[in-house]
Specification:
heterodimer; A: mainly beta; 4-stranded antiparallel sheet; 0% helix; B: 193 residues; alpha/beta; Rossmann fold; 7-stranded mixed sheet; 7 helices; 7 strands; 36% helix; globular
């Protein structure tokens, strides 16, 4: 995902802000990392450039 | 509130999907986007799967949102931004999106009212929601409804007028743009002033 997406993304649970933690990037593109809910503390993984922002109870793992 | 709907089917079907589905019809989508009362740059393709609808539109800042990771991998392979999310629990800030398109997808969404309300919330004032779906009241529509049942899908189809009412209930200024087997409903978010 492009870092500029942070301008529109929010925590799906309460629409509060997310914090971006990057493990691997390619320029503007975040490849691996996570988005963390600043209020809920929920961790949403970014894998293969795709953030998984499904509510936790809908995740398959 | 929300559920997987037909996500597992699309995870398996992703590879074949772009070959099987005809490219989305552009004209009605463009007509819908033209109703926006602001510049249309950021467009969310909701339930967008491989992103074929938004790819056909050539917009500046597309984002494909889908619950199926398999479909999104195809979207990313086409150079699109993608986010895995539930339509009824959208991870999008209020008023940050110029347009939301939902093409041949809303009938797969378990909670359509919640999904439309979330789309309306994410739209900026003057932004537009454009939905294309299939009319179960037409002959082809009845065939589609029964074939999706045979495939074990959990889809629910609304006709154009029923969908326009749902879009209006979500607080948008709704209109049916075209009718037929495939139909188009648009809803514009009017500013508070």
């Amino acid at each position: 995902m492009k870092e500029s997406l942070m301008d529109i993304l929010c925590d799906p649970l309460d629409k509060s802000e997310l914090e971006l933690e990057v493990d691997e990037r390619d320029g503007e593109e975040i490849i691996e990392g996570r988005l963390v809910g600043t209020v809920t503390g929920e961790v949403y993984p970014i894998e293969d450039g795709i953030p998984n922002l499904l509510p936790p109870d809908m995740r398959e793992e | 509130m929300h559920g997987f709907g037909d996500v597992r089917f699309f995870d398996r079907f992703a590879r074949a999907y772009d070959f099987v589905m005809p490219s989305a019809r552009r004209a009605p989508l463009r007509e819908g986007l033209a109703l926006a009362e602001r510049d249309v740059e950021r467009v969310v393709d909701l339930g967008g799967g491989t992103g074929r609808a938004v790819r056909a539109l050539d917009v500046d800042r597309p984002l494909v949102v889908d619950a199926s990771r398999g479909m999104l991998r195809r979207a990313v392979a086409h150079g699109l931004d993608a986010a895995q999310a539930d339509a009824a629990t959208l991870p999008l800030r209020d008023g940050t999106v110029d347009a939301v398109i939902v093409v041949d997808a809303l009938h797969h969404v378990p909670d359509r009212q919640a999904a439309l309300a979330e789309a309306a919330r994410a739209l900026a004032d003057g932004g537009v929601l454009v939905v294309r779906d299939f009319d179960p009241g037409t002959l082809l529509g009845r065939l589609l409804v029964s074939s999706e049942r045979v495939m074990g899908m959990d889809s629910t189809f609304d006709g154009p007028d029923a969908l326009a009412r749902l879009v209006a209930d979500a607080g948008l200024d709704a209109a049916v743009l075209d009718r037929g087997f495939g139909y188009t409903v648009a809803g514009v978010k009017r500013g508070s002033q």
